Amino acid sequence: MNSEIARSAAEEARKKALEDLEAERARSCSLSDDVDRLKRALLEKDGAISQAGKAIEDLRVANTELVRSNREVERANTNLVGENTALEESIRGMSLLSSFFSEVCLVLSNFFMLVLAGLKDELLATLVKARSIMTQLEGEVSLNGRLWTATSDLSASWELVPVDESREEARGDGLVDQLCYLGATLRDRVRDALHVGVKRAMAVVCSGFSYDLEVVSHGFVTDISKTDVENEERLHALIDDAEVHGERLAKLFEPEVLPPETSSGAGEDGEGRDAD
User: Fold this and answer.
1) pLDDT tens per residue, the chain (276 residues)?
2) Is 259:157 a contact under the CB 8 Å cutoff?
3) Are 148 and 266 in contact (CB under 8 A)?
4) Is 154 exposed, middle or buried (0-12, 13-18, 19+ CB in 10 A)?
5) If we measure between CA atoms, which residue out of 186, 219, 188 comes closest to residue 202?
6) Labelling 23: which of 8, 29, 121, 259 has CA 20 to 30 A away?
7) What are phi and psi of 86, to 5 degrees?
8) What is the three-class DSSP state of 132?
9) 15: alpha, beta or left, given left = phi > 0 and alpha = psi -120 to 50?
């Protein structure tokens, strides 16, 4: 009986011990879990502390950069204030310069208006003068054309080679050269005509009259008993007396000296060769 009680007590004690052991074991597991949780929490806290330290360091660096940036901003602000002051000075200078240029432009505009007004008057006067010169030039061209025609006709009547107006050398001094050539040729022809006339007159005298040709060849015979004035008057009287008869005699030899008559361009103006 006592043994059963003891066995029962021991069984109870063993069960209780087992229960206590299970409870301790459960408490130990719980404590282990708590320890793990605490370790994890400590680890997380250490990580957070490290991140916080890193963030603090980043903030310190950022603060340093911010301070440096603030100094640069202050320096840039100072430079900007100086530049702004210089810009204001430049603007004031530009304003003064603009006012000066405006006054200069106004003066130049007034000057150019006066100059243009004067040039306009001069231009109008020049245009009037140019029209007058153009009219004179047209008259000169027309006269030059008529002169060319008259010169060509005169050259042809004296059997001279006229200048071809279509050739290059006929321009400019061509007409002057032709007139000089025509004048020299006519001079030679007039001289030849004079010689022919005198020679023919001598031949007429010899044909039926008795004169000393040697004496006649010396020209007019003066009266030594008279003064020079009286001899001059006598000479003019003899010339007047011989005018009609001399003209009749000259007409006989005109075919030998003069070219045949032709129409002249000068007749356009109502002027032509006198009738014989």
Assistant:
1) 667 777 777 777 778 777 777 887 787 787 878 788 888 888 888 888 888 888 888 888 888 888 888 888 888 888 888 888 888 888 887 888 788 878 888 888 888 787 777 777 888 888 888 888 888 888 888 887 788 788 777 777 777 776 665 554 545 567 777 778 777 887 777 777 777 777 767 666 666 667 777 777 777 778 888 898 998 888 888 878 877 877 777 777 777 766 666 544 444 443 434 434
2) yes
3) no
4) buried
5) 219
6) 8
7) -65, -40
8) helix
9) alpha
Q: How far is Cα 183 from Cα 194, in angstroms, rounded to an integer?
A: 16
Cα–Cα distances (Å) from 106 to 101, 109, 112, 206, in that order, read 8, 5, 10, 100
Largest distance between two CA atoms of the chain: 237
SS3 113: helix
| Cβ density class 256-269: b for 16+ within 10 Å, e for less | ebeeeeeebbbeee
- What the block records as the tokens of 13 is 């004690």
- H-type alpha helices, the chain: 2-157, 174-208, 213-216, 228-241, 243-257
